[in-house]
Automatic annotation (TrEMBL):
Belongs to the cation diffusion facilitator (CDF) transporter (TC 2.A.4) family. GO terms for biological process: intracellular zinc ion homeostasis. One of its GO terms (cellular component) is plasma membrane. InterPro entries: 4Fe4S_Fe-S-bd, Cation_efflux, Cation_efflux_CTD, Cation_efflux_CTD_sf, Cation_efflux_TM, Cation_efflux_TMD_sf, CDF_Transporter. The keyword Transport applies. Residues 278-310 form the 4Fe-4S ferredoxin-type domain. One of its GO terms (molecular function) is ferrous iron transmembrane transporter activity. The chain crosses the membrane at residues 40-58, 79-102, 114-132, 153-172, 178-195. Keywords: Membrane, Transmembrane, Transmembrane helix, Transport. Its main location: membrane. This is Cation diffusion facilitator family transporter. It is found in: Membrane.
Amino acid sequence: MIKKEFKVILISLIVSFVLTGAKFGAYFVTHSVAILSDALESIINVVAGAFACYSIYLSSKPKDENHPYGHGKVEFFSIGFEGAMIFIAGCLILVKAISYFFSPHELHKVDSGIYIIAFTSVVNYVLGKYLVNQGKKIPSITLTGNGHHILTDAYSSIGLIVALLLIQFTGYTIIDPIASIIMAILILTKGYQLMRRSISGLMDETDMQVVDKIIALFSANRSPRMIDVHNMRVQQYGNNYHIDCHITMPYYLSLAETHDEISRLEKLVNEQLFSGEAEFFIHMDPCTPNGCEHCLVEACPVRQHPFERRIEWDRNNVLPNAKHNEATT
């Protein structure tokens, strides 16, 4: 799987390098500041691709004493680095576009620039879609992030083509820096989004969509002996996940019986939710008489209160560090 991920990002790196050269060729032919903006952003594709190659290599290394959760978090650093580079490129493009108003220059062979940029836009779109699809299939946040960045590059190139066509038919060269400024704003926005994604991953921000999937799977395969699940925490390390939670079960069960229940859940999550590895740390809590009201165990030998209602599991009662009877009293 890692070899495939590395192969995909290497293809992206080579294609991005060729397209960057083509865009700079278009700039030297036309002297368009908007085309230069597009070319500067493409440099980031090359730099980010190279860094992504290294991050994929590093994230594939096994766990060791210094990195007990593996090296997967480097992928968050990778997309943060890419986002920062994109943001810097956006700032440079903005400065270059504004300077045009103080020192305008004549454009040349705009039609040639249109053909070159149109070609790079099509190739980038195909490449971006390929990376996003592969990133979801593997899965890999590095490939997905790189793919979304390249798709943004393709879309901005389409906007650039529209601007060049307007210049070609109207002769208003002022459109050139205006288009460059719009592109710079879009690039700055994308850079911010990638940095935000990186920070959230490095700070272990909870992905609620993943939490909802885990809760739904637990609920669909709920054993009557699982009285409640609470204090759930989910952390992502590259393609792998670390899941903590507390599960309340009848106090009279043997260690072997509780272990079998936990093993069943681990197997379900790894087989049905993640193509990577989900590691569990589950703390077992013994039941108390207060939990009898929503305990699903029929003919419980130690029941002290009659069953009243089944409590459905959701974020409100699975995430807090409180048993269901404590959270609802």
